Structures are given as structure tokens and as C-alpha cells.
Amino acid sequence: MTARVEEAAVTRTQATTRGLKQLVEGRPAPFALRCGAVLIDYIVLVGIVAFSTLIARMLGGGARTAASSAETVGILIAVAVAVINLGVLAGFTGRTVGKWTTGLRVQRKNGAELGVGRAFLRHFVGYPLSFLTLGFGFLLAALSTRGRALHDFIADTIVVRDV
């Protein structure tokens, strides 16, 4: 009797794992949509820096220290927004602002939640490595069958459509 119950539990767990794996692998995000999400994230960050530079230029030549301070504050705000958007927000929800607007979500390859540590690994270690390969790390998402880029392989993640 106990053997049948344990066998049924194992079979159910294997079926759930298999179903979860098919669910994760079945709907990877299209490359163009991923590019759009990254573009939105960077537009937000560059917009902050551009706005602070505009404020600095409006303060004019007589207030050099105020203009310099405005640019510095803008850069610091952009860094803080990057950490919150790419690390904290992505870690807790699996989405950055760009992924949220495009309907995408980052999750572990096995279907589990991303987590803050893995989000930091993906965005602050994986992204620079993808850039250092002259963009090939990003292009890998268009070439691989499951749509995984270099930073996805590093952090063991996948970007899926959040339907």
C-alpha cells in the first residue's frame, strides 16, 4: 500500500516537472520583443541622464557648480533606477519596466521565480559579458532554438511571454 502511494507521488511529481518544463520551453519570447524590452529599459535610463543634463545647461555658465551638481545627481539617480529596475524589480517580479510593457517575464529555466541574486547576476554580470563579445551574447538569443542569450545561460534563466 505504501509503495503504491509513494509511486503515485513520484509519478505525479515527474508529470508536474515535465509539464512545467514544456510550459517554460514552449513559449520563449521572440527576439524582436526582447530587443524592444531592452530598448525601453535603456530609454528610461538615458532619459534621466538627458533630463539632468538639460537642467544643468539651463542653469547656465555662471552656476558651474550647480550645473555640475545637476549632472552628477542625474547620473546617481540613473544608477539607482538601474539597480532598482534591473536588480530588485526583476528579482521580485521577473520583469523590468521594459519587459512589463512588452509582456515578457524572466524566470529560471526550470520555471521557478528569478530571485534578486540571480537578477543581479543576469543583468550586472551577464549583460556586460554579452556586450564584451561585441554583441554576440545578445545575438545568441536569435540563433538558439530556445531563445536564450549569453546572460540567460550564465544565470540559468529564460525569457518567456507572460500571457
Q: Which terms summarize this structure?
A:
single chain; 163 residues; mainly alpha; two-stranded antiparallel ribbon; 7 helices; elongated
In short:
This protein is mainly α.
3D architecture notes:
The structure is a single chain. With 163 residues, the chain is mainly alpha-helical. The chain has one domain. The protein is 74% helix and 6% strand. The protein has a two-stranded antiparallel ribbon. Helix 3 (64-93) crosses helix 5 (116-132).
Q: What's the number of helices?
A: 7
The amount of beta strand, in percent, is 5-15%
The helicity comes to over 70%
Describe the sheet with the most strands. Answer: 2 strands, antiparallel
Would you tell me the overall average pLDDT? 84
Q: How big is the Rg?
A: 21 Å
Distance between the termini: 41 Å
Number of strands: 2
Summing up helix and strand content along with how strands pair, one would put the structural category as mainly alpha
Written as H for each helix and E for each strand, in order along the chain, the element string is HHHHEHHHE
What global shape is seen? elongated
Poorly predicted segments: 15-25
Spatially, the strands of the biggest sheet line up as 1-2
Number of domains: 1
